[in-house]
Write a structure and sequence with these properties.
Helices cover about 50% and strands about 20% of the residues. The chain is an alpha/beta fold. A five-stranded parallel β-sheet has the order 3-2-1-4-5, with helices on both faces. Helix 3 (about 95-105) crosses helix 5. The protein is globular and about 50 Å long.
Amino acid sequence: MANTFVAAYDGSPAGRRAVDFALAQAKAAGASLVVAHVLEWSPYSFLTPDEIAERHKRRGEELARAESAVIAPLMAELKASGVKAKSEIKYGHVAETLCDIAKAHGAGQIFIGRTGHSTIVERLFGSVAGSLAQIAPVPCTIVP
């Protein structure tokens, strides 16, 4: 069994349940935990050089905000758990980026909440959890 688990966390109650379940599993298995927060970002748009510069500035601001408002409070709580935990904040297609994070860390399992901060598009065309279950390179646990 791999020594690392990845838990997707978007700040939602379902994301927190996924982290809590992953933490319990990591503790039982003696594994470490990577808490992954992925900001949806599409590279498919045609922008002027000024728009590209503005987009990169916003991107940096969004990453900093995600670190301070979403991930840092959670990681502070996880310190007392006894499980070695670290975080990753990335931009990209959520399911694909979670797979990339799992591969990069040699993770043995990915945990994700069944629902999260989803949009109407995801409700119509499929959830992140459903997409992840189809493409994950390792077992994927969808936590209700």
